[in-house]
Design brief:
Elements lengths: L2 H10 L8 H21 L3 H13 L5 E2 L6 E2 L1 H14 L13 H15 L3 H21 L2 H6 L5 H16 L4 H12 L13 H21 L23 H6 L6 H5 L7 H4 L14 H14 L6 E8 L1 H6 L8 H4 L3 H11 L15 H7 L2 E5 L19 E7 L4 E6 L12 H12 L5 H12 L7 H5 L7
Parallel strand pairs: 3-4
Antiparallel strand pairs: 1-2, 3-5, 5-6
Helix pairs in contact: 1-6, 1-9, 2-4, 2-5, 2-6, 2-19, 3-4, 4-5, 4-10, 5-6, 5-8, 5-10, 6-8, 8-9, 8-10, 9-10, 14-17, 17-18
Length: 469
């Protein structure tokens, strides 16, 4: 069997022991984290535009747009919820699959609500989606994709959604292969839109495409059944499968995509980074380091002569901006996030409001911060597959009293070496949901997610996640 057929067969008939207690716990954490972010993201400016657009278009009320009172078609609900999950730059990141939770949680919830799935079925579909998209991701040289200009989360995330939706809809191997093929022709996202609402659109569009691919496949639409792999040295269309088209010749390993398929789930095998700051992941280590230094030494903006942040070159490719011209761009402006970290001793949702990004004290401090790349910063501290740690930072603070504080930092809170607790996730959920969901539903919905595997119907949870009083 080819790669696409093997992955589709796994999705339809996974090993009986694939969903272990560890898989259930990890999936449940991701649902709690991502649902809270979706609730908060639904009120962001870009999502308000999407809400108006899908409301004007109409649609059969099959699935809920989380954090609102709107129900629409599965595809439209997944589209908006996916964009909401990524709009705040608060969702987790798994190396090799990137922001897969912000695609899979909205996609799985939309289909689960329509088919009235149980919590256990939801978790199983989620884990299968992670497995298939993760294996494809592990077989691709994603730096090749990145350097070709592709923004990968919506591409791999959409693939994960297509597979998970196929599982929840009960599709057979042939139809699941069709869903994969349709998604492969729907994937997209360019890096030029990073630092704008276009980045969240990539995620939402990937969810939409994945759900639509599964729906079309269920209705009998047929495409090439082996979309992931191409034919080596093919002279025509047959060469350009998913891997060749997105990564380029020689930048992928098909065998790696199916090696030991059915073994330990990637959901528990790959490290995951929970974002505790709503901004680009690469800023997290520097933010935590500066907060720790400021707290330990009782530092304020008036005490700073200069802050030097030496970083991995990839950090400045992911977060390249120097001015926080709006709330989106601010999240990808390292100097802004570091200045806010010192002034406010936190970098949360309030630090990215329109007023806060124009705060004179923070803007003045930015002028005393230099962020520059060093090619010798390559340390692997809990990253993935031995890759360089793009977020590692060497920080030196020169104070006006003549002192210098310096250190090398490699891990942020929420990363494998500094994991979050359930209470950390509950606190983040409450911070996101308070003021949007009715007060009594915040605790109720968090409790239902915590016991997701025992939930008879996912609709019970979704009923608590709308903004109706």
């Amino acid at each position: 069997m080819g790669v696409t057929e093997q992955l589709a067969t796994f999705a339809v008939t996974p090993p009986a022991d694939f969903v272990t207690p560890a898989v259930i716990e990890e999936a449940t954490k991701r649902f709690l984290d991502t649902i809270g972010i979706m609730v908060a993201g639904a009120s962001s400016p870009a999502i308000r535009v999407l809400l108006k657009t899908v409301t004007d278009a109409g649609g059969t009320p099959e699935a809920t747009i989380i954090g609102t009172s709107i129900k629409t078609s599965v595809v439209q609900a997944g589209f908006v919820n996916g964009a909401s999950a990524h709009a705040l730059e608060y969702d987790d990141l798994t190396p090799q699959i990137t922001h897969v939770s912000s695609s899979l949680v909205p996609g799985c919830l939309a289909i689960a609500e329509k088919v009235d799935a149980s919590g256990k079925q939801l978790i199983e579909a989620f884990a299968i989606g992670v497995e298939v998209a993760g294996r494809v991701g592990l077989g691709l040289k994603q730096l090749a994709m990145l350097d070709r200009g592709f923004h990968t989360p919506g591409i791999l995330g959409g693939l994960a959604v297509a597979v998970a939706a196929s599982r929840l809809m009960g599709l057979d191997v042939k139809a699941t292969r069709m869903a994969i093929g349709l998604m492969a022709s729907s994937a997209g996202g360019i890096r030029k839109n990073v630092g704008s609402a276009g980045k969240a659109f990539h995620i939402g569009n990937g969810v939409r495409a994945g759900l639509q691919a599964a729906t079309l496949a269920a209705n009998g639409f047929e495409v090439d059944p082996d979309a992931i792999e191409g034919i080596d040295h093919g002279q025509g269309h047959e060469r350009f499968g998913f891997a060749e088209s997105f990564a380029g010749s020689g930048a992928y390993d098909l065998e790696k995509m199916v090696a030991n398929l059915g073994g330990e789930a990637l959901l528990t095998r790959l490290p995951n980074m929970v974002r505790m700051h709503p901004c680009s992941t690469v800023n997290a280590v520097g933010i935590d380091a500066i907060i720790e230094l400021a707290t330990e030494h009782d530092l304020h903006a008036r005490d700073i002569e200069h802050i030097d942040v030496a970083c991995h070159p990839r950090l400045l490719q992911i977060a390249p901006y120097t001015e926080p011209v709006d709330s989106y761009r601010a999240k990808f402006t390292p100097a802004y996030t570091f200045a806010a970290a010192l002034v406010d001793r936190q970098v949360g949702l309030p630090q990215f409001t329109a007023d806060r990004i124009r705060d004179p004290q923070i803007l003045d401090l930015m002028g005393h911060i230099t962020v520059h790349a060093r090619t010798d910063i390559k340390e692997d501290h809990g990253w993935c597959d031995g890759e360089d740690n793009w977020c590692s930072a060497r920080i030196s603070m020169r104070l006006k009293d003549g002192r210098t504080l310096a250190g090398h930092y490699a891990q942020a809170k929420g990363w494998p070496a500094r994991p979050v607790t359930w209470e950390d996730l509950h606190r983040k959920f409450r911070d996101c949901a308070d003021g949007i969901l009715p007060k009594d539903r915040v605790g109720q919905s968090a409790a239902l997610v915590r016991d997701l595997a025992g939930l008879f119907s996912v609709r019970e949870l979704i009923g608590l996640l709308n903004a109706r009083p």
